Amino acid sequence: MDQNALKQRVAEAALRHVPEGEVIGVGTGSTANCFIDALATMKDRLAGAVASSEATAERLRGHGIEVLELNQVDSLPLYVDGADEVNDHREMIKGGGGALTREKIVAAVAERFICIVDGSKQVKRLGGFPLPVEVIPMARSYVARRLAALGGQPQYREGFVTDNGNLILDVRNLDILNPIELEEKINNITGVVTNGLFARRPADLVLVGRGDEVISI
Ligand code: 5RP
């Protein structure tokens, strides 16, 4: 089964966890897009969705699903999103699509976070995928020096501006022995908005599409 078919399969599996009559959070990326397309089949049984990016909001609206601002809701029973890497502790690297900050905010509000991935994203140790860090533009060089001091090799994502008007540094070669500690350390660098380690708030359930089956972690 090809990667796209696996993404569709996990997206459909996630649909079974969507509570009827509620507003849910929706992530960003190609796997989240498969979920949005699947969600459209039950849009009449949904109160609406909070989007983690402008692209997701546009796709949801395209299917006739009402998009609400996060500030319009007091709680979210569920958030569904993809990931670039996920380990056995349901900790993730996210942000390959550059939407990490809004994704982290929506995930923080959600009572339940379901991560949907194809098998290629499952790893023993996080860090093979370069860690995205969203940075206030004027702090770019300073933050890059601090990331280098942590042993990483930051690279400016040329020509990319986040939905929040900031830039992304993709950091290679980080030794991610303790994801929670590193997430906090990088977030404490002045000028960093947030980084793509989702360890302090891991997923509650990971659905992995592998071969003919969907495995739960
Ligand atoms: C976007 C993300 C995505 O969830 C992540 O990049 C995975 O994307 P895809 O499903 O296209 O592989 O974090 O910021």
Automatic annotation (TrEMBL):
InterPro entries with a match to the protein in the record: NagB/RpiA_transferase-like, Ribose5P_isomerase_typA_subgr, Ribose5P_isomerase_type_A
Catalytic residues as annotated in Swiss-Prot or TrEMBL: 103
Residues binding substrate, per UniProt: 28-31, 81-84, 94-97, 121
Pathway in which the depicted protein is active: Carbohydrate degradation; pentose phosphate pathway; D-ribose 5-phosphate from D-ribulose 5-phosphate (non-oxidative stage): step 1/1
Keywords tagged on the record: Isomerase
Pfam families according to UniProt: Rib_5-P_isom_A
CDD domains on file: RPI_A
Enzyme Commission identifier(s): 5.3.1.6
Reactions catalysed: aldehydo-D-ribose 5-phosphate = D-ribulose 5-phosphate
GO BP, sorted A to Z: D-ribose metabolic process; pentose-phosphate shunt, non-oxidative branch
Molecular functions per Gene Ontology: ribose-5-phosphate isomerase activity
Superkingdom: Bacteria
Isomerase keyword on record: yes
Root EC class: isomerase
One cellular-component annotation, GO: cytosol
Gene3D superfamilies: 3.30.70.260, 3.40.50.1360
Complex and partners: Homodimer.
Free-text function comment from the UniProt entry: Catalyzes the reversible conversion of ribose-5-phosphate to ribulose 5-phosphate.
Family of the protein in this entry: Belongs to the ribose 5-phosphate isomerase family.
Name of protein: Ribose-5-phosphate isomerase A
